[in-house]
Amino acid sequence: MVLSNAERQAAYRKRLKEAASSTYEFELMQKQIEQLTKAVNEVRAHVGLSEIQLPKSAYKPKAGV
User: What whole-number distance in Å separates Cα of residue 28 and Cα of residue 47?
Assistant: First the structure.
């Protein structure tokens, strides 16, 4: 069975939401976000681009999660 892009994205968001419900998984995702942001900003600085800043929603879960 082949999933459409929308179905794949919905399944991915569902897995992320389930994973974020545990404290360990949430802390792990925060560390991954920080590492990826740092790596992207290092590359952008190397090629002469400005740094990126992720929206706060990337760091903190939405209320009620």
Answer: 29
The model's pTM: 0.50
**Amino acid at residue number 33:** I
CA pair distance 25, 9, nearest whole angstrom: 20
Concatenating the DSSP letter of every residue in the chain gives -PPPHHHHHHHHHHHHHHHHTSHHHHHHHHHHHHHHHHHHHHHHHHTTPPPP---GGGTSPPTT-
pLDDT band at 25 (very low <50, low <70, confident <90, very high): confident
